[in-house]
Amino acid sequence: MNRPEHGRSLTSRLLTGTRRFRTSLFALPLAAGVLLALPDTAARAADGASLLQLGLFQREGDAWWAWDSLRRRSPDLADGLSPAVVPLDARRQGEGVALRATAPVGLDVAALCRRMLGAGFGCLVLDAAPLPVPPQAPLQAPLQAPETKPPADSAQLAPPRPAGDGKADVAITYPPEAARTMAAIEKSGRRKGRLGAVIPDTALDVMPATLKEEGWNLCALTFDDGPHRVVTRQILDVLNREKIPATYFPVASVAENQGEVIRDFIAAGHEIGNHSLTHADLRAMDPDAQRHEIAEANRILRGFGANPVLFRPPYGRYTPDLLAIAREESMSPVLWTVDTRDWQVRDPDRIVQHVKTEAGTGSVLLLHSTYPSTLNALPRVIAAMRAKGCEFVTLSDWIERMHQIATPATVMAPTLVNAGVNAGVKAGAKAGDTPLRAAN
Length: 440
Prior knowledge:
Layout: H1 10-31, E1 34-36, H2 40-43, E2 50-57, H3 60-73, H4 75-78, E3 82-87, E4 97-103, H5 109-118, E5 124-126, H6 154-157, E6 170-172, H7 176-190, H8 194-198, E7 204-205, H9 208-214, E8 218-224, H10 231-241, E9 247-249, H11 252-255, H12 259-267, E10 271-272, H13 287-302, E11 310-311, H14 320-328, E12 332-333, E13 338-339, H15 342-345, H16 348-358, E14 364-368, H17 372-387, E15 391-392, H18 395-403, E16 407-408, E17 415-418, E18 421-424
Parallel strand pairs: 8-9, 8-14, 8-15, 9-10, 11-12, 13-14
Antiparallel strand pairs: 1-6, 2-4, 2-5, 3-4, 7-16, 17-18
């Protein structure tokens, strides 16, 4: 659709600009921060124009504001693109819109998307039409849509699932804002013991001295995102060959179309956790939508025989209310002790070196199932951890064994990482302080 004309004054735009700019910063890189894994020959639009998806938004005005932001901040990236805003579901109102752009013939769209992602914007190359739009009249929403009270039905509030037949492989790309959050999580974890770093709302803890005294040697490998039809399957092969149990947190809307790989993880003795339905930034959603993200992901994964008891929030971002909702859904929120930074460096040697430097017995490693560089590094990561004396277990087993030697935290109250800012939480026993039953 063509962009609607609006004759609002500059003063009016400035008054509302800050709010919408903040919205676009969340929605553009986070909801659409993915790059389609295509061969270079397919990524080049040699036979015709290519279609890019630059973000998913609740309102049309927010989508156009994001496009304005791209043009202002990086005009070279927007040059030659023809933008349009399309509804995600033409049959249901309020389901959100997608910001798309047609690229000129012959442009290397994969390279353009990498540059956009590097600049902090979102970009997805559509090699087909994964969001077909039935014929209908163009959206007529004003640039600044009026606030409306959301319906009570949580299913109506959930963000739309990635559409299409599910055959395209995507890898979540973490923008600079996510890097700051991950660094804050790591910094917060250093001030806690192992258990406090992994379970953000626990009032129990285990300090390194206790682990040494107990001769603790348990470690857990955890993988987020995907499944990727090639990389995730090969990661599973490595784990099985090395006889290592691991915990896998797939994105349920992606896993829904790849049930066989989920069943194979379960059959091999690995644990399946909950990483939400769509991998959106759940903090921006209302409580009903947050609950739907968790509950619907559980429904999908249980359909493949999994029994998720662990919930890892996308990007590691959470609020106290989100953790409370996860508890109400009988999930234990979990993070990690060592971020391998595979999502950032995409270099097997650097991944392995970081593990050698930062990890040890008692570590819970964060890896991702969608990057070839992670796959290439995995055998050496396993060897490095074994050299440190690690015995590998699933994350649920790690937590349950850790609870056996845990004591009440006395140094400081647990903290919650919220967009890189620590918000204090009163100390006190939580539901997660009881041992977990084994998952699977």
